Amino acid sequence: MKLRRKILLAIILLVFIPVILMGAVSYYSFSKAMENKSSNFYWISLQESDRKLKFALNEITTLSNSAITQPVIQQILKQPNFVVNYENKQVINNQINHPMINSFGLYSNDRLLYQYNESMSFNELKIQSWYGAMKAAEGRPIWVGPGENGSAAAGRPVLIQARLIKDYDSLEDIGALIIYVKPDILDQVFWEAAMLKQGDILLVNKQGNIVFDKSGNHIGEQTQFPFLADGYSNGKGYYVDKYLNEKSLITYLPSQNKGWYLVAITPHKLITSESINIRNIAIILVLFSLISAFLFDRYFVRRMVRSIISAVNGMKRVKQGIFVPITTNVQTEDETDLLIDGFNRMSTQINELIQQVQVEQARKKEVELQALVAQINPHFIYNSLESINSMAVLQGNKNISKMVISLGKLLRISISENQELIPLNMEMEHVRHYLDIQKFRFEDKFSYQIEIPDSLKYFVTQKLIVQPIVENALYHAIEPMEGNGFISIVAKENGRDILIDVSDNGPGFDQTTLLNLWSKERGNLKKYRENGVGLKNVHERLSIQFGGYYGILICSSPGFGSTIRIRIPKILP
């Protein structure tokens, strides 16, 4: 991204972030305040509706309380097989008389004694879902709404009050009174409830059934309000959730009629509509800030970036090898002039350095030519060994031929190999040729074995790490022995590492001898050690190449031979 765009982006972010945060926080805070205000409004409205509901239901309860204690009804229910005559009916009708009562039924303990308008039979009464609740109420009235008793689904919604009738003297159950109340009594209560447009007020029971609702469109439907669950701590409150696939503010209040809840449903968009002005103001401020940022870029940032662009173009010319100073027509007398001046001085210095590098490159080519000439000597040695081998074959001396071949391969690995890391099988081949040459010198004084699994042959390692260990074993262990010596070279896998054990059956050595061999003073060492290819040299080269975790481990004891363990990492070519 170009500098001008970065500066513009920084200005936009520095201005936009505070404005956007301010607008978002204000909008959120105002919305929450509106939610609290609306919930308080609906809570008060629900309280008022519940009070009216209690008053309306108490009218029916007072009437039924008076009726079930009348001597006529008590006498009818106490006498078995009593037949209600016309006069009794008139008395009962006068006792249970209210504009909101649609019908009622008077039952003994085993049959329907009298019904007004229309009522269910005794067998139908016993199978009602609320029959058990009526028995458990012990004479207290229970209310069953249109959405609970199935009347709304049948198209004839009624509100049912059911209660047992007890003997006035013995308090034994002698019958039941079922009163069917017109749903208009609920309509009057809910119609007067204050609410916003498009809202609704529900009367819900503990099981989630909508007993009644103001709109009349959802009576009998099943709901899943969380406050209906057992153990819900809040008795009253509000929350925001989806109702009928629309985000709504849901305010709830337990009704004084046990088992019912009053619930106010308000679409959330109606509540947040008053917050739109704050949102629009925030958007206007953001647009104004954006315009201000572009004007600032036009008249201030553009001039500053112009000088920087001149420096960038100068750098592009330097990349092409053109070192031309930057000239400016306008002197601003600020940091941009210092930038141009610094670039001109840098360009001059780079030009001088390039000239120096060209001189050094010419000298380097001259040294490389000398190195190519120096390679003639190893090739001369290889050619000479080939000639000796041919003469030995012609003369029939196979031992000389084998020795010359091994020496040639040994020299090619140690001298002609350019790369530092070689395959492990090539390193072992180098050791094999070295030991074959030494067997000509020591004749049958020692034997050897080399074991390397096929799975490890192609892992690479630093060259010339095993041969110095083997050479050390030959000169310090095998040569002083009177009997036959044996050298074992075994490579094995150890997790992510490779272990190479070089063992001999020589006389071994004690700790003092080992410290002398490891000493930095090389005056008393043999010539092969003076060349820096001994035990310490191998250990240091491995530590430098692969890290301090890798190197050699020396195990020896007088009279029990020696084992040198080389640890290297698994590295594929």
Structure report:
Its main location: membrane. The chain crosses the membrane at residues 7-30. Keywords: Cell membrane, Kinase, Membrane, Phosphoprotein, Transferase, Transmembrane, Transmembrane helix, Two-component regulatory system. It is found in: Cell membrane. By secondary structure, this protein is of the alpha+beta class. It is built from 17 helices and 17 strands. Helix 1 runs antiparallel to helix 9 (276-319).
Comma- or semicolon-separated keywords:
573 residues; alpha+beta; five-stranded antiparallel beta sheet; 17 helices; HATPase_C_sf; kinase; cell membrane
Brief rundown of the structure:
The protein is an alpha+beta fold and 573 residues long. The protein has helices at 3-68, 71-78, 86-95, 122-126, 131-136, 146-149, 184-191, 268-272, 276-319, 335-374, 376-395, 398-416, 424-442, 467-478, 511-518, 527-530, 535-546; strands at residues 101-107, 112-116, 142-144, 159-166, 173-181, 200-205, 210-213, 237-243, 246-254, 260-267, 421-423, 446-451, 460-462, 485-494, 497-504, 551-556, 562-569. The longest helix is centred in the first third of the chain and has 66 residues, at 3-68.
User: How much of the residues is beta strand, in percent?
Assistant: 15-25%
Strand order of the largest sheet: 2-1-5-4-3
Our count of helices gives 17
The amount of helix comes to 40-55%
Largest sheet: 5 strands, antiparallel
Q: Structural class, judged by helices and strands?
A: alpha+beta
Model regions low in confidence, pLDDT < 50 over at least 5 residues = 371-377, 520-533
Total strand count, please? Answer: 17
What's the overall average pLDDT, rounded? 81
- The N- and C-terminal alpha carbons lie at a distance of 40 Å
Principal-axes shape call: elongated
Q: What is the gyration radius calculated from CA atoms?
A: 54 Å
Catalytic activity: ATP + protein L-histidine = ADP + protein N-phospho-L-histidine
EC number: 2.7.13.3
Enzyme class: transferase
GO molecular function, one term: kinase activity
